[in-house]
């Protein structure tokens, strides 16, 4: 009687683990697909960011700072405001969000993968 | 059991301090954004309002209603720094064609520092500038929608 109960219990435990592995694999696949999809957007968003930075003129202001640091110290407020005004906020936001989303989903995928292979 | 209590209280206090710091940083960034946005919007408004005076003719044409004047192409204009090609020089000021092909008047005073990209040390005068030169300007906006230049860097090309 006790042996039957033990067998039944182990069967139930195995079934639970199998179900858990199946669910984790599904999640892993989902996160993998999601991270790949987001990874495809990264080149576009980075391209937008690069073109916006080129158009904004930030590099000229930074060049001016690097080449003439003494003048930067004299007019630091104007320099900082010029840089702040020309920051491509939208492009930075889009790129940061896509990068964050990629890192987040990829980490979830790795976590699910680790758990699945531990089981 | 009782020894853990102060540690937990410290953790809570640290979390609260962190949250407050994050909120303060966000508020500073938000306030900075509002300030920069306001400055740009004010300058863009003055630039548009003084377009006829500065460039002899409204951007939208003489017949158009001033309220229906088209906004400058692209983003709102920057008030503290710009770059572009010199298209006209008039004594104490010059006109550049900047970002988005928008023309801007740059006022040069005797305190304005003009430096060449080639020769970093030597200072230039406004008479040394030529039409077609590429310049980076740092300054501040005035009431007439112009930029009072404080620092000008002459580049070879953009």
Can you describe this structure?
The complex is a heterodimer of chains A (119) and B (158). Chain A has 119 residues and is mostly helical. Chain A has one domain. Chain A is built from 5 helices and no strands. Chain A has helices at residues 2-56, 58-67, 69-74, 76-85, 89-118. By secondary structure, chain B is an alpha+beta fold. Chain B has a domain at 79-155: OB fold (Dihydrolipoamide Acetyltransferase, E2P). Helix content of chain B is 32%, strand content 30%. Chain B is built from 2 helices and 6 strands. Chain B has helices spanning 4-49, 51-55, and strands at 81-90, 93-97, 103-116, 123-124, 134-141, 147-155. In chain B, strands 1-2-3-6-5 form a 5-stranded mixed beta barrel. In chain B, β3 and β4 form a beta hairpin. Chain B starts with a helix and ends with a strand. The A-B interface holds A 55-57, 60-61, 63-64, 67-68, 71, 74-75, 78-79, 81-86, 89 and B 32-33, 36, 39-40, 78-83, 99, 113, 115, 117, 120, 136, 138-140, 150-151, 153, 155, 158.
Features:
heterodimer; A: 5 helices; 0% strand; B: 158 residues; alpha+beta; OB fold (Dihydrolipoamide Acetyltransferase, E2P); five-stranded mixed β-barrel; 6 strands; 32% helix; elongated
Describe the secondary-structure layout:
The complex is a heterodimer of chains A (119) and B (158).
Chain A (H helix, E strand, L loop, with lengths): L1 H55 L1 H10 L1 H6 L1 H10 L3 H30 L1
Helix pairs in contact in A: 1-5
Chain B lengths: L3 H46 L1 H5 L25 E10 L2 E5 L5 E14 L6 E2 L9 E8 L5 E9 L3
Parallel strand pairs in B: 3-6
Antiparallel strand pairs in B: 1-2, 1-5, 2-3, 3-4, 5-6
């Amino acid at each position: 009687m006790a042996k039957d109960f033990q067998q039944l219990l182990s069967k139930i435990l195995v079934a639970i683990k199998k179900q858990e592995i199946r669910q984790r694999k599904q999640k892993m696949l989902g996160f993998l697909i999601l991270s790949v999809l987001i990874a495809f957007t990264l080149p576009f968003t980075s391209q937008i960011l690069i073109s916006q930075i080129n158009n904004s003129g930030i590099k000229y202001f930074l060049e001016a700072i690097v080449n003439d640091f003494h003048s930067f110290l004299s007019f630091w407020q104007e320099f900082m405001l010029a840089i702040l005004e020309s920051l491509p906020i939208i492009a930075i936001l889009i790129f940061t969000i896509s990068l964050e989303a990629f890192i987040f989903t990829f980490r979830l995928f790795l976590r699910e993968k680790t758990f699945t292979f531990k089981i | 059991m009782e020894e853990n209590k102060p540690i937990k209280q410290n953790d809570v206090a640290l979390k609260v301090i962190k949250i407050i710091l994050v909120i303060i940083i966000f508020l500073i960034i938000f306030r900075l954004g509002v300030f920069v946005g306001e400055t740009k919007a004010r300058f863009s408004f003055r630039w548009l309002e003084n377009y006829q005076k500065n460039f002899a003719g409204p951007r939208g044409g003489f017949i158009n209603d001033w309220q229906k004047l088209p906004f400058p192409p692209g983003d709102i204009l920057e008030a503290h720094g710009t770059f572009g090609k010199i298209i006209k020089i008039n004594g104490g000021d010059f006109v550049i064609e900047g970002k988005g092909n928008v023309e801007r008047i740059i006022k040069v005073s005797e305190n304005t520092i003009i430096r060449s990209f080639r020769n970093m040390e030597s200072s230039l005068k406004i008479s040394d500038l030529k039409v077609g030169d590429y310049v980076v300007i740092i300054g501040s906006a005035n009431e007439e929608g112009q930029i009072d230049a404080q620092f000008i860097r002459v580049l070879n090309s953009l």
